[in-house]
Amino acid sequence: MTEKKHILSILVDNEPGVLSRIAGLFSGRGYNIESLCVAETMDSKISRITMVTQGDYLILEQIKKQLNKLINTIKVSDLTELEYVEREMALVKVNAKLEHRAEILRITDIFRGQVVDVGQDHFTIMATGGSEKMAAILNLLKPFGIREMARTGSIALCREPKRNPDK
To answer: CA–CA separation, 28 vs 166, rounded Å?
Structure first.
């Protein structure tokens, strides 16, 4: 079977140690976590963990079963086969020589990014979007020289089912 990227949305109790147990489950079985984002939901007692990992169907089924066995796990959803909205955010500090500033600003504008800090010889750009959009803007900024970058990884929510207006 082929390995495939999976986005897991995991609702858990918002308690100390829960994330550590989940990360330990992955590392103890040799699974890699490509990205991980955690924050509390509208209910301060519940956190949503959005995790990106790779694996075939059988591996993902095993991961979901193991996650569901953890006492603080409320719900595990693999969004990969569903319709979902996914976004990432990146802060990118890029070299901005005087002769390149207009081009960097143009790229930032095309991708609906924002310059959030300006220095003598650099811009710090904030960009948001899906993983393909993030890869595209980073590829365009790379020739100018990326000094530093911080990325959130994926966050995602399942789309609501479309309603049939005839019903």
So the answer is: 51
